[in-house]
Amino acid sequence: MSLKEKMKELIIEWDEDGLREICKSAIESKEASAAELLRIIGDVLRFIGEQFENEEIFLPDLIGSADTVKTIIDEILDPAIRASGEEKETKGKVILGTAESDVHSIGKDLVGSFLFSNGFEVYNLGVDVPASAFIEKAEEVGAQIIAMSSLLTMSMDFQRKLIKELENRGIRNKYKVIVGGSPTSDEWADEIGADGWADDAIEAVSLVNKILNV
Amino acid sequence: MKMNKLEVLSKDEIEIIHSASIKLLGNVGIKIDAEDCRKLLQDNGAEVDENSNFVKFPEILIEEQLKHVPDSFKLYGRDGSFNFEVNTHSTQFGTIGTPVRIYDPSMKRGYRKVVLDDNIKQIRVVDSTDHIMASHIDVWPSDVNYLTVHTECIYVWAKNTRKPYGAGCYGRVASKDMIDMMSIIVGGEDELIKRPRLIGFMNPTSPLHLPALMTNGLEIFAKYKQPTIIAPEALAGTSAPVTIAGLLTQTNAEILAGIVVAQLYNPGAPVFFGTVSHITDMRSGNSAIGSVETGLMTAGIAQLARYYNIPSRGLGAVTDSKCFDIQNGLERYQTLMFAAQAGINYITCAGTYEATLAEALELILIDDEIAGMINRAFNGIDVDEDTIGLDVIEKVATEIKPGTTFLSEKHTRKYMKKELYMPKLVNRNRRTTWRKKGEKDIITSASERVEQILKDFTELEIPPDMDKELKAFMKMAEERTYDYFRKAEGIGADSVTLPDGIEIREDK
Questions:
Q1: I need a surface site. Which of A67, A198, B332, B403 has the fewest CB within 10 A?
Q2: What is the reported pTM?
Q3: Which one from A104, A113, A117, A149 is the annotated catalytic residue?
């Protein structure tokens, strides 16, 4: 079984320990670099994503695999890539969070998992995130996208507030701002001057792909 | 625990209805048209009034014959690889109906007359379903001589499904034809008797009447041990009392009479304790099959069947709606859920609407979906340490990493398919995705699947010799006249003479 096939099996089985072990030993034995391992992971996630789209597997299968991979990337591959001085390959960086005053997370987290599975680097800031926190993180990591979610109608106004804040700081054009969440709509996105809106996690991936032209 | 059964009668009330039915059978009896059937009953202790043709059933006769009735039996498809058991505790789904028209959106009125090609399609679609276990001669082709519908349909069955088939036991000639053709197809009478493929359907005529055509057909089905549904279609307020208690008492007597006759023809003949009863609409005089009372009657029959320990058959997925509106959905779900919850063992009429006068292949798939949901409901809620999952609750609740949900827990992966029914047609997309995929309603989605199923279907092979034999049989049947049938069934004649060439096998 090739390294790729072994990794695929471990990812599908959510075998975090197995994946950690195989990645460590591949790097140590120089069988593959961290960057190469990351590319393999990307291929496996794409395969799982296709299975999901074809309705061959279900949401937990996809999310669980993405979570397994994420742990190993954070723990092993990212530090190894940084240490080697290589540039990490990514389709783009997305800052993600639920707008201030709102603590709903599931939909937003699904968006995060889907974007991650599709090769984006996702910074999930959690819930009840103030506009300033979104902006500071975006500045820090050099993100292209700020993605905000709201489930409560009243928290929607904080989406508008974030866009205003970017304008006030004179950096509105630096970022594409996208919004989502049950009570939002494409009309709402237009009204507040956002760059895009998505109805669910799958749509969010298409939207980000389109905006970044990747 | 598993889902509890719905009960509409107390134990005492079941006893009261049983006693009243026995009284009715003993004091009034059942009008039986066929002389040989009356004679058979008389020979076994029944009292016959040759003027009125009413036969009084003594309690002892009923009790004795009920002892022979099997509480379970199996039904097989053509080659036997597909089969299922009918018993007094499980739930199976089937079709049955009398549709003369079929949904066709290309027609101005939305439907057209049924043709034989629709029988083929109907059988193929049923064949593809997960939960609908058998089709019957459901749609009535207008392009076939009505005296040969049964032979044409058996031929169609052989080529188009791996599942069992059902048909009305309308007379001994037609019933025997079907047995003969089935025997050719499955490799002989003995094989057919050993592993039955055909589900008979016998309607007593309410109130308290067993017509000759029905008992004649029942005789054949009983002798060849093909499971037969005995199901009156009493209408509360016209052919039965308007009271549900009265209707249940009367139809119970009719069913018991049919079962006694079947057992006298052949002890141990498999039967379903059935009902098609519903109500008369008191504004129009029309029958109303999708009524809430249909559910109550069906539930009552389920309880009576359990009392006698006989598998039951009842109505579900029936509606009076003429289109695909909310009435169609609510009545089909209401009757289906009533029958299922009441513990009916064979629930029929999938695919029909307009009081089973119309058929839609799309509805077969929708009913299959509902049946899947009902099967899930039956499994109830499993409660144990692992399903409660204290560990996983603690793990997810106390995880501080953003993005943590139960979705990425092994507990979810382990249980999701068992706990959650995965629908095939019900749409759960968000609006954008739904819009992107064509804003389809459930009928449109079902139509597309029907089209795909029919496209993918490969006709089953019939060996050339068998085909020749079947064709010759069908040709022989084609040459019969209406008068031939009347004579054979003893309709309008004093006695029955079997035409040459028809021999009924004695019990094996």
A1: A67
A2: 0.90
A3: A104
